[in-house]
Amino acid sequence: MMFVISNIVLLPKPKGESIVQSLDILIQNPNLATSLKDIAQKVKDGIRITFDEGVYLYEHAELSYLGVLANYIREKKHGDLTYFNRNFHIEPTNICVYDCKFCSYSRMIKQREEGWEMEVDGMIDILKKYDDEPVTEVHITGGVVPKQNLDFYASFFRKAKAHRPDLHIKALTPVEYYYIFKKAKLSHYDGMKYLKEAGLDSMPGGGAEIFHPEVREKIAHDKCNAEQWLDIHEQAHHLGMRSNATMLYGHIEQFWHRVDHMERLRQLQDKTGGFQAFIPLKFRNQNNQMSDVAEVSVVEDLRNYAIARIYLDNFEHIKAYWAMISRETAQLSLNFGVDDIDGTLDDTTKIYSMAGAEEQTPAMSTKELVDLIKNVKRKPIERDTLYNVVTDYTEHVFEDEVKPSYYKLPVVN
Ligand code: SF4
């Protein structure tokens, strides 16, 4: 299979040549700028690149160069293994007290009649729909409303765990937690501890956007700031919980803002080791207050994945949400540092489609997801939230697949 983006042709995975050979050829290329050669050598030697080098990559490195470096790191860490999980989403509300300019999802409190606001029992009813499904995770996220407070979520977590103890609850972000802990007059640590005891298992990576105040003030001025976001993750990590981190890129930020964002995450990860995956989220411009801002190209998406893989040397996984970037770009991303394409989520999530993602009804069966990964010569691994292997689909044949037929050969003695 071959992909064409604009006039760039990308093959799924170089054959014959090892990732080490590809990197060596690159380093020995006499036409490569010395700075790029030095960065490539650092990657080969396992040396962390600096802030300035991160910015330099964004400003000067071509996609093909970045692909070699990112793929080298990806394959050193994971080989061809490509992770996904079976999960479903519950979005308790799409009403929000905040006013993020890029948000296509929320209805403000004053537009309450256009939104939904679930009760705990309604959320449990959704959870029960998956009783017979082999899902391992429920992912909960949405808007922020006063009624869905600390007790609301504690009550939901307790009921969910009582109903299905083995289902991993990955829920909310520091945006919700900062709001509800403040209302409950609890410290970040005490609030997280309380909810962990109620059944919360881990935290997704949302709400990070761009940390630097120069940008954050313009796109998300009224919700938790970078320090608060990072502190809530830090407290969760201290409690033994794992979490992810995102970055909303491709709008009004400059390249150095992206590096600043990743630098803050890299520093916290050095301290706690609690992050599992970094997830770059592409800014989409439909139905929000930033519709006049053009979206970046797929080439920029791939460059961004690759630089994230190079910069965040202490993150195990780089994840691409296929539902947000399209199946084709998700496949391509597997050659640019990504090793996880999230889950077989169904259309219970509205977050991506409302922002203008290609996938308007984001549902993919396990077979489709496995095929998507195998078609670019990678090995599909179903994981649980904590990256334990649930099923290795490398050699798996689905029952409805047409199996090759064999002729009986004559027995020759
Ligand atoms: S991005 Fe999140 S916090 Fe911001 S307005 Fe939308 S739902 Fe609310």
Radius of gyration: 22 Å
How many DSSP E strands?
Answer: 15
Give the distance, in angstroms, between the N- and C-terminal Cα atoms. Answer: 43 Å
Q: Compute the average pLDDT.
A: 89
**Biggest β-sheet description:** 4 strands, mixed
Number of helices: 16
Low-pLDDT runs of 5+ residues are 1-9, 403-413
User: What hetero molecules are in the model?
Assistant: iron/sulfur cluster
Characterize the structure shown.
The chain has 413 residues and is of the alpha/beta class. It is built from 16 helices and 15 strands. The model is unreliable at 1-9 and 403-413 (pLDDT under 50). Residues 96, 98-100, 103, 105-106, 143-144, 175, 223 line the site of iron/sulfur cluster (SF4).
List keywords for this structure.
413 residues; four-stranded mixed beta sheet; four-stranded parallel beta sheet; globular; disordered C terminus; alpha/beta; binds iron/sulfur cluster
Task: Note the topology.
Elements: E1 3-5, E2 8-10, H1 19-28, H2 34-45, H3 51-60, H4 63-78, E3 81-85, E4 87-90, E5 95-96, E6 107-108, H5 120-128, E7 137-140, H6 150-163, E8 168-171, H7 174-183, H8 188-198, E9 202-203, H9 213-219, H10 226-238, E10 242-249, H11 255-272, E11 275-282, H12 298-311, E12 317-318, H13 322-325, H14 327-333, E13 340-343, H15 351-354, H16 366-374, E14 379-383, E15 389-392
Parallel strand pairs: 3-13, 3-14, 4-7, 5-6, 7-8, 9-10, 10-11, 11-12
Antiparallel strand pairs: 1-2, 14-15
Helix pairs in contact: 1-2, 1-4, 3-11, 3-12, 4-12, 5-6, 6-8, 7-10, 8-10, 10-11
The protein binds iron/sulfur cluster.
